[in-house]
Design a protein that fits this description.
CATH topology: Ferritin
Number of domains: 1
CATH class: Mainly Alpha
Shape: elongated
CATH architecture: Up-down Bundle
Order of helices and strands: HHHHHH
Radius of gyration: 27 Å
Structural class: mainly alpha
Number of strands: 0
Helix content: 55-70%
Number of helices: 6
Largest sheet: none
Length: about 180
């Protein structure tokens, strides 16, 4: 079965009015990266992205805010107030790493919420957030592995110490 070159396929076809696509970007050129195809609420997206700036990937998010003709809010006072995670001091190395893992998990939850909000309305911002989410998930997995390794080493050290102490007890009694 052959299809005519001018006739679009009924299933999965893509037909674009090239002249219209060429004409639209020339209108409102002052909007930069934001074209008429952008369906998101720009002010809300800028606010949501500014809230995400408190994480370590601020440069990528700030760049996207600028592309949306917004101003990244990098003020340390407001960054602290907007932070979704909280600082909790750990008493041991494992406690500190565990708190870092909690912070990563909070970032993961926050980024998932942002990605769901953006949906198909702002695919570029969504993609930026998905890339950052993937890094946060890697960080969380690394921290989980580190906690497991340290916990295993601590247990092994305790067992070795107990074994050494048990061996030394008969020597103490004999003296």
């Amino acid at each position: 079965m052959s299809h005519s070159a001018n006739k679009p396929e009924s299933q999965g076809s893509f037909v674009a009015d090239i002249e219209q696509i060429r004409r639209r970007p020339r209108q409102h050129i002052e909007d930069g990266a934001v074209t008429s195809a952008y369906r998101g609420n720009r002010q809300t997206v800028i606010r949501v992205l500014n809230e995400a700036l408190e994480q370590e990937h601020a440069d990528k998010i700030a760049e996207r805010i600028t592309q949306l003709d917004g101003a990244p809010d990098l003020n340390p006072d407001t960054l602290t107030r907007r932070s979704h995670s909280e600082y909790v001091e750990g008493e041991s190395l494992v406690d500190m790493i565990r708190e870092d893992l909690v912070a990563e998990r909070i970032a993961i939850e926050s980024y998932n919420e942002i990605i769901r909000y953006l949906g198909d309305n702002d695919p570029t911002s969504r993609r930026v957030m998905e890339e950052i989410l993937a890094k946060e998930e890697e960080h969380a997995d690394d921290l989980k592995s580190l906690i497991e390794t340290i916990s295993h080493l601590e247990k092994q050290t305790r067992e070795e110490t107990q074994t050494t102490e048990q061996r030394q007890q008969p020597l103490k009694r004999a003296s």
